[in-house]
Amino acid sequence: MDIRWWAVVVLAALPSLGTGGENPEAPPESWTQLWFFRFLVNAAGYASFMIPGYLLVQYFRRKNYLETGRGLCFPLVKACVFGNEPKASDEVPLAPRPEPAETTPTWQALKLLFCAVGLQVSMPGAA
Question: What is the annotated signal peptide range for this record (predicted)?
Fold first, then answer.
């Protein structure tokens, strides 16, 4: 090993050498470290986007922007607020979907086994 790696190992081990394996006493938590305060800050962050977005969507729906809108932002507003579904008058009746073939209990058990084995293999450190 290179001398730099040994220095890193020694420096990483030094704080635990003088404590006898015990963690040093942590300073008392301030009120900003409480989980409830952090929760409120997180909720305020989400609300700063969600509330104006909700109000904007309600405004566009109330003003019937889909019928009266135009301009540069119209395609973006249409896609974000109303979606890409056709209007009720533009809808084309859909053909009925074919019913899926009935599967046997053996086939369902094989699919379940395949999925379970796949999950076990994909997470080697979980077992």
Answer: 1-20
Extended beta strands in 1-127, E state:
none
**Rg, Å, the chain Cα set:** 30
As a residue count, the chain comes to: 127
Q: Name the amino acid, one letter, at 120.
A: Q
Residue 50 has a CB neighbour count (10 Å cut-off) of 11
Which of 64, 87, 86 lies closest to 77, judged by CA? 64
pLDDT in tens, 56-80: 999 988 988 888 888 888 888 888 8
pTM over 0.85: no
DSSP label of 32:
G
CB count within 10 Å of CB 80 equals 13
H helix and E strand count, the chain: 5, 0
Report whether 81 contacts 65 (CB < 8 A). yes
